Amino acid sequence: MKQRPTFPARIDSSLSAAKTKAPLAVNLPQGLGMDSMAVRQRMVQKLAGQGLSDPRVLAAMGRVERHRFVDSALVNQAYEDTSLPIGLGQTISKPGVVSRMIELLCQGKEGKLGRVLEIGTGCGYQAAVLSEIATEVYSIERLRGLHEKARENLRFFRLANLHLLLGDGMLGYAQGAPYAAIIAAAGGDALPTAWTDQLAMGGRLVAPVEQRAAGGARGAGGVAAQALVVVDKTSQGLHQTILEAVHFVPLKSGLA
Ligand code: SAH
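Above: the input record for the complex with S-adenosyl-L-homocysteine. Below: its predicted structure, written as tokens.
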């Protein structure tokens, strides 16, 4: 006969642990474990259809398993071109935006990128993609909870050229400078000077920046409209190009 639970009901600790911190094998989505490669290739084909053409970026997007960076409940959306919540009010960036920004970093450069600084590790997905196309990646996150989550997510990949840092990315990371490329996954109202200071000559920075048009352009919900900004550091100085509108989480200072 089935015994009725006493009150408070005793929960099998191994079961509850599996729920909160599932090992990778359990974490794999039903039906995605074996054929995630095919699903990813479809995503890459779609990105190519939208204009992504750099073979290095296409290959990296095809290799990095995005489903390992999202909660198990969202795994079935892992290869859709959408941002998804990763906790603490932050999001994993859309594959279309990740690949667009990395393609901009690679533009006009042959082979692998040199040292890259990423501001806003989040869950670590973009950092993993960057580690495929650069010799060295420094990725900095201000939220301890996400810094640790990224470390956990990335353990599986064993990326020896990727260094995760807990810190305020608005200050850059002087110890790793100069950088061939800097990429920000969070947008502020201006580019911190530390970033352009730490950029190598000939290097490129890609970041979302709030655009304050006459009258103060505001998007939905009163959020300042952002655009993708590219800055090239040349012997003649900094050359800035403003590209399409984007929507990133805000760049904030200090640790939390
Ligand atoms: N690259 C991530 C995107 C994460 S969202 C991905 O692949 O999914 C952007 C991240 O930037 C958030 O985790 C947020 O906490 C972080 N962030 C915002 N301001 C920051 C700062 N000053 N320094 C470091 N990280 C910052």
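Notes for the reader.
The chain has a mean pLDDT of 88.
The radius of gyration is 20 Å.
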